[in-house]
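I'm stuck. Please check this protein.
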Amino acid sequence: MSQGFVQFELERLMSIWENQVDFNLSESGVCPLTVKELVQEPAFIEELLSTPLNYPQSNGLIELRQAVAKLYDGATEDNILITTGCAQANFTSVLTIMEPGDEIVIMLPSYMQIWGVSHNFGYKINPFSLKEELGWGVDLDELKRTVSPKTKLIALVNPNNPTGHILSAEEMDAIVAAAARVGAWLLCDEVYAGAERVTDKFTPSFWSRYERVVTTGSLSKAYAMPGLRIGWIVGPADIIEKTWAWQDYITISTTILANKLAAYALSPEVRLRIINRTRDYIRAGYKNFEKWYQRQGGVISIIPPQAAAIAFARYHKKTNSSELVRRLIQKKAFVLPGDLFGLDHFLRISFGLPVDYLNEGLNRLEQVIRECN
C-alpha cells in the first residue's frame, strides 16, 4: 500500500452526524421505504417468516441474480455478483482489475470512494473533470489528454454524484472510445439509474457497449432501500469469478433475508412501483427546493440536477464549506460540504424528503448561510 492512509472523510462525517441531527439533508437517496411499504403480499410475508436464517449462496441467490441480469441487455446470472452494497461492489471490482503501480483515470467530482481506494493501494491517479461551465458535462478534450496507453481503468459515476448529471450519448461514446483506444477497462457506478428527475427513460448502461466494462449498482438509491445493503456487479463471467474470489475473503455473502427481499423488489410490478415512488419524491422535492433557493437572492446558484435526489449548490460566500457545515450542525441540521468532493464553496443538499422535514432543514441552512462572510 502507499504511504499515508487516506480516510474516507465523506463517509466518516456522515456516519458521525447523520443520526445526531434533527434534520439530515446529507443523503443522496430518497426517503427510505419501510418493510410494510415494500411487502404487500401476505404469501410473501409468510415465506419470509418461514425462512431459515442460513447463508445464501455466497454470490447471491440465483433468482436475485436472474432478476438483476434482466436489467442489462444480454446479461445472464453468470454475469452477476451480489455484494454488500455498491461500496463493496466498487471496492472488489477495483481490486480485481488493478495492481499496485497501475494507472487509473477517475471522473471528478465524484463519490470519493474509488479515489481513496486507489490512493491507499498505490495506484497512480489521473482525474478528468465534469465542468460547471459545461453544465457539469465532460470536457472531452481533457478526457482525451488524460487517458494514456498506461491507463488500466477508467472509473466514473453515471448519473453523477454529486452533480446529478446524466452523461449524453456523445459523452458515453467518447468515454468508450477513450477506453478502447488504449485497451482500458471501464468501471461504471450506475447506482442512480432509475432516479431520473427530467425524464422517464432509464439511464442507459455502459454494459454491452464495450467488451471491457464492469458496472455496479444497488438498491440504495433509486430503490430507496439502503439498509438492505444489497449491491451487484455486472461484468464478463471471468471477471465476476475473480471478483467473487475477493468477496470470499471480505464479506463471504450478503444475508438471506436481504437476498429474498431484493429479488421481490426487482420483480417487474414491484420494481415499477418503487421507481415511480422514487421519481415522485425527487420531482416534488426538487420543486420545493427550487422555491427555496430562488428566495436566496443570488447567494445560492445551481445547475439543476438531471437525476438523483441531490443538488450540488454553489454558495457565494467566503466561508469554507466544511466550516459552514460545522456551524449548521450546531443548529441540528446537516448537509455535505463540497470540499470533500474536491470543490469548496459547494454544498450537496438532499431534497428527496418529506416536505415539512426538508423545509425546516433548509430554513436552518439559510440562517447559517446568512451569518457567513
Remarks:
- Residues 268-294 form the longest helix (27 residues).
- The radius of gyration is 20 Å.
- The first strand starts at residue 23 and ends at 24.
- Residues 9-34+271-371 form a domain with the Aspartate Aminotransferase, domain 1 fold (CATH 3.90.1150.10).
